[in-house]
Specification:
The protein has two domains: about 140 residues, Collagenase (Catalytic Domain); about 120 residues, Immunoglobulin-like (Sandwich), CATH 2.60.40.1120. The chain is α/β, with parallel strands linked by helices. Bound molecules: zinc ion. The site of zinc ion has 3 residues, from helix 5.
Length: about 375
């Protein structure tokens, strides 16, 4: 009996020690998770049209609204990283200029101006199309200026109704989208293909959910955008410090491997069809055609130049941005066909995996 009591006591002691260790372990784990991220700040030079400042109650009132808007935008930006950002990012608005001229004129002046040593990105807000030349460039966009400085323009689409940063819920997400361009991310919606404009397999291609795809109801960055934003994080002017990044992100090669009924197959025809931004269509004539070798493979080389600034013939009159956006790869053997989407942002992920070849495996 005494022995049994001793034994029970030992078990209880062991359990107590185990529980204590487990508790300590939990605390340690929590500490390592909770560790705060370093903050990276980008200073935004802000110029606002006089009409907007007056509409919102003068300069001081405008400044207050602007600060609150940026708080909202920063919060959204970071939360949309869903724990994948290596830093906490903060855009700081510096309300510098109230202008009373055409925002096109101002934009042209800023575009040519070198300098802005205390700022990282420019933001022009134009709440009304009140000058004749503004109508030709309505809407929001991100462009480049002198010294690779990025300039975001938020221009109204109306002559009478104020379209400002404030008042509409998705506007702070829209500004995050434009700043996403500043950080080096392209529009994912440009890779979209409409089913009715796809004469090859008649399917729609919808790119990954991302702030850079649609910001209206999206609350997350794609892994592609997260990778780029982390990669360029420490640079205040990614256009300068990471010039040519877009093309560098493409792998050198795409290795296609085809199996028919489980066996490597020679003589499988591979057709590569290109899609266009803006049109969101797929061109019916293959841009390239290949055939698998006796190992059932084909190595597509010079991939950066296949997508960006592709060699002619393109079999189409107009190619927006001089780029193919999504390729549709068709594998055909004895009338059997299989398809693989190759959107640029997907293939470019190789860069973040340190791979120079993107692998495609097809089972027919
Ligand atoms: Zn965009």
């Amino acid at each position: 009996m005494k022995r049994l009591i001793t034994y029970v006591c030992m078990v209880i002691f062991a359990l107590w020690v185990g529980a204590k260790n487990a508790q300590e372990f939990t605390v340690q784990t929590q500490e390592s998770v909770v560790q705060p991220l370093d903050t990276i700040e980008y200073r935004v030079f802000v110029a606002v049209d006089k009409a907007a400042v007056e509409h919102w109650g003068g300069r001081e009132a405008y400044q207050t609204k602007l600060n609150a808007f940026f708080d909202q935008m920063n919060d959204y930006w970071n939360k949309a990283g869903v724990g994948r950002f290596k830093y906490y990012f903060r855009y700081i608005p510096d309300f510098q200029v109230v202008y009373d001229c055409s925002s096109r004129q101002l934009e042209n002046i800023y575009r040519k101006s070198a300098g802005f040593p205390n700022h990282d990105v420019l933001l022009i807000i134009d709440s009304l199309l009140d000058f004749d030349d503004e109508e030709g460039a309505k809407g929001w966009y991100c462009g480049g200026g002198a010294d690779n400085l990025s300039m975001v323009v938020c221009r109204s689409r109306s002559k009478t109704e104020h379209e400002d940063l404030f008042g509409i819920d998705y506007f702070h997400r829209g500004l995050a989208h434009e700043f996403g361009h500043y950080r080096g991310v392209t529009d994912l919606y440009a890779d979209r293909i409409q089913a009715k404009k796809n004469p090859v397999n008649h399917l729609e291609y919808e790119p990954d959910s991302c702030v850079m795809n649609s910001h209206y109801k999206t609350y997350t960055w794609s892994s592609y955008a997260v990778n780029i934003i982390n990669h360029t994080a420490k640079s205040k002017r990614p256009g300068l410090d990471f010039s040519g990044l877009f093309k560098q992100m493409f792998p050198k090669n795409i290795q296609v491997s085809v199996k028919v009924k489980g066996k490597n197959k020679k003589g499988v025809k591979l057709n590569l069809y290109g899609s266009r931004a803006q049109f969101n269509d797929l061109i019916a004539t293959p841009y390239r055609t290949y055939e698998t070798d006796k190992k059932g493979g084909y190595l597509i080389t010079d991939v950066p130049n296949l997508y960006d600034n592709p060699a002619k013939p393109l079999n189409v009159d107009e190619l927006p941005y001089n780029r193919w956006f999504t390729f549709l790869l068709e594998a055909e053997y004895k009338g059997e066909k299989k398809y693989v989407w190759l959107p640029e942002y997907e293939v470019q992920q190789s860069f973040f995996e340190n791979k120079d070849t993107y692998q495609v495996i097809i089972d027919l």
